């Protein structure tokens, strides 16, 4: 399954929906993660908050190709995208395992996926370094076999990059 998460607008969703199995518009109209960890233990991979992100753990956990388009916010995801990613913690379990000689949570889904993150807006050189590290660490945590971070300039971004 190919999944696109973005914070652009609904017309961007319409433009990209033919290329992806799932297009998720991070509009911020959902509750933030409460940190209750029930998606880990009580209701595995299902958030107890009943809104459009209730099944986000399953969607991201089963994504073979994950593409994220986000505005740069101080070297990190936009608040709406970050909130959405926070709500997907249940795609792993509370148990731990080693991946790459480092301790990580065991994945609930065994899909080797790829992660591509497209960052829009002004990005300083220091923020680019932060982004590269952030995406690398996210890819490891999500069990991705391949990852990439790309920086889109505003002119190209407004014309619509080929994702």
Main features:
globular, single chain, Rossmann fold, 163 residues, alpha/beta
Structure, explained:
- The protein has five helices and seven strands, in the order E-H-E-H-E-H-E-E-E-H-E-H.
- The two termini are 15 Å apart.
- The protein is globular, with a radius of gyration of 15 Å.
- Strand 1 (2-6), helix 1 and strand 2 (22-25) form a beta-alpha-beta unit.
- By secondary structure, it is α/β, with parallel strands linked by helices.
- 27% of the residues lie in helices and 28% in strands.
- The strands form two sheets. Strands 2-1-3-6-7 form a five-stranded parallel β-sheet, with helices on both faces. A two-stranded antiparallel ribbon has the order 4-5.
- The protein has one domain: Rossmann fold (3-Layer(aba) Sandwich), CATH 3.40.50.360.
In short:
Helix content is 27%, strand content 28%.
Write the layout of secondary structure elements.
Layout: E1 2-6, H1 10-16, E2 22-25, H2 56-61, E3 65-71, H3 79-86, E4 92-99, E5 102-107, E6 113-120, H4 125-141, E7 144-151, H5 154-159
Parallel strand pairs: 1-2, 1-3, 3-6, 6-7
Antiparallel strand pairs: 4-5
Q: Work out the helicity level.
A: 25-40%
Return the structural class: alpha/beta
CATH level-4 homologous superfamily: Flavodoxin domain
**Tell me, what is the CATH class?**
Alpha Beta
Q: What do the pLDDT scores average to?
A: 90
Alpha-carbon Rg, integer: 15 Å
Strand order of the largest sheet: 2-1-3-6-7
Number of strands: 7
Largest pleated sheet: 5 strands, parallel
Report strand %.
25-35%
Separation of termini?
A: 15 Å
Task: Give the overall form.
Answer: globular
Number of contiguous helices: 5
Q: Regions with pLDDT < 50 over 5+ consecutive residues?
A: none
CATH fold-level name? Rossmann fold
User: Can you name the CATH architecture?
Assistant: 3-Layer(aba) Sandwich
- Count of structural domains: 1
What sequence of helices (H) and strands (E) makes up the elements? EHEHEHEEEHEH
């Amino acid at each position: 399954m190919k999944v696109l998460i973005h914070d652009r607008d609904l017309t961007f969703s319409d433009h990209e929906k033919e290329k992806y199995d799932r297009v998720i518009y991070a509009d911020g109209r959902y509750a933030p993660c409460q940190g209750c960890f029930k998606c880990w233990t009580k209701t595995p991979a299902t958030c107890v908050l009943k809104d459009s992100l209730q099944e986000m753990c399953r969607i991201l956990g089963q994504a073979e190709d994950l593409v994220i388009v986000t505005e740069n916010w101080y070297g990190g995801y936009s608040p709406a995208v970050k909130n959405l990613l926070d709500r997907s913690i249940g795609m792993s379990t509370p148990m731990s395992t080693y991946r790459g000689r480092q301790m990580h949570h065991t994945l609930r889904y065994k899909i080797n996926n790829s992660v591509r993150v497209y960052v829009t807006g002004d990005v300083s050189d220091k923020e680019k370094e932060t982004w590269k590290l952030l995406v690398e660490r996210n890819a490891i945590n999500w069990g991705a076999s391949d990852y990439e971070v790309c920086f889109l300039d505003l002119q190209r971004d407004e014309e619509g990059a080929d994702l």
